[in-house]
């Protein structure tokens, strides 16, 4: 279909393909339009007089797995009657950009990573993320699996806006992407499924509206907290204790604590005897830190047991 589209527009009477340049990282299709009479948008007179050209680069759906750019030599006409300068009219241009958007959304649903999509299309990751905004809440799958995961992710690394992704973890496929993580929209979304009772497990991260939604709409399901998410909280907690203790220490000890940060986050089993002794020194200064560390180790043990018995 993609190939057809390209040949169709290249076959179009008005388009002239001036050349194809392929290098290691992209394909460029150089095109221009046939010169033809245009109607002046200001006075309505007809003109074929060319004023100048401007090169426009339009990202298109990748060809042969490579980012593809249409390099259009866009013509500017000038009206002989009133002097108005204007660009030639090309009616398929807007379609090409939306074609690329649709392609990217399809790739997202196939669980391609943003980075891969960005590489193959030559579109920035931020733009890929922005496209998520255009997704509606109409699901294109009709039945729910027994296990679903709901995760949040940030629109971009520095941003505050969250999207929500619904995954079938058993089949490892993305069911849908919602444009925000608000409970109202989550409810609207899940309400329409008739087979919600079939769902046995919902894996979520620790975002309150997720668990509220599950409790309301998946009455027969158990909630599991994603381990990765949980671990992150535990590490933050340890870090907070360390920072608090550190502040109260004299300068020479403070540096020592800072250096030992990695020791606190590492698993006890993986430490050398020397490193274990360093930990003991820190614990000697603070019981809170010792307790925090023991709790972390305990959590790792529990999650290991769960993993091993699964
Ligand atoms: Zn004119």
TrEMBL record:
Domain (Transposase IS204/IS1001/IS1096/IS1165 helix-turn-helix) spans 95-134
Q: Which residues form a coiled coil?
A: none
- A Pfam family (short name) is Zn_ribbon_ISL3
Looking up InterPro entries in the UniProt record yields: Transpos_ISL3 (IPR047951), Transposase_DDE (IPR002560), Transposase_HTH (IPR032877), Transposase_Znf (IPR029261)
Signal peptide range = none
Q: Where in the numbering of this chain does the Transposase IS204/IS1001/IS1096/IS1165 DDE domain appear?
A: 149-302
Q: Please, which domain of life does this record's source organism belong to?
A: Bacteria
Query: NCBIfam families, alphabetically?
Result: transpos_ISL3 (NF033550)
Descriptive protein name: Transposase, IS204/IS1001/IS1096/IS1165 family protein
Lineage from the top down? Bacteria, Bacillati, Bacillota, Clostridia, Thermoanaerobacterales
């Amino acid at each position: 279909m993609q190939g057809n589209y390209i040949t169709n527009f290249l076959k179009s009477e008005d388009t002239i393909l001036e050349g194809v340049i392929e290098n290691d990282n992209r394909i460029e299709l150089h095109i221009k339009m046939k010169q033809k009479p245009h109607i002046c948008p200001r006075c309505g007179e007809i003109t074929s007089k060319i004023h100048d050209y401007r090169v426009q680069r339009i990202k298109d759906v990748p060809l042969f797995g490579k980012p593809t750019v249409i390099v259009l030599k866009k013509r500017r006409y000038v009206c002989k009657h009133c002097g108005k300068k204007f660009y030639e009219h090309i009616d398929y241009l807007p379609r090409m950009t939306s074609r690329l958007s649709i392609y990217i959304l399809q790739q997202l649903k196939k669980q391609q990573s943003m980075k891969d999509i960005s590489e193959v299309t030559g579109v920035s990751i931020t733009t890929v993320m922005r496209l998520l905004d255009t997704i509606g809440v109409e699901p294109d799958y009709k039945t729910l699996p027994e296990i679903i995961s709901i995760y949040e992710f940030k629109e971009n690394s520095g941003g505050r806006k969250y999207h929500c992704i619904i995954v079938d973890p058993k089949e490892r496929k993305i069911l849908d992407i919602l444009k925000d993580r608000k409970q109202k929209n989550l409810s609207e979304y899940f309400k329409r499924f008739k087979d919600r009772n079939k769902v046995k497990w919902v894996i979520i991260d620790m975002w309150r509206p997720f668990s509220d939604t599950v409790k309301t709409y998946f009455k027969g399901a158990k909630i599991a907290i994603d381990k990765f998410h949980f671990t992150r909280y535990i590490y933050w907690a340890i870090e907070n204790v360390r920072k608090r203790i550190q502040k109260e220490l004299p300068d020479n000890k403070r540096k020592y604590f800072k250096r030992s940060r990695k020791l606190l986050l590492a698993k006890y089993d993986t430490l050398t005897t020397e490193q274990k002794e360093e930990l003991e020194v820190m614990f000697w200064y603070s019981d809170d830190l010792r307790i925090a560390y023991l709790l972390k180790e305990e959590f790792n043990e529990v999650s290991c047991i769960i993993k091993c018995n699964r």
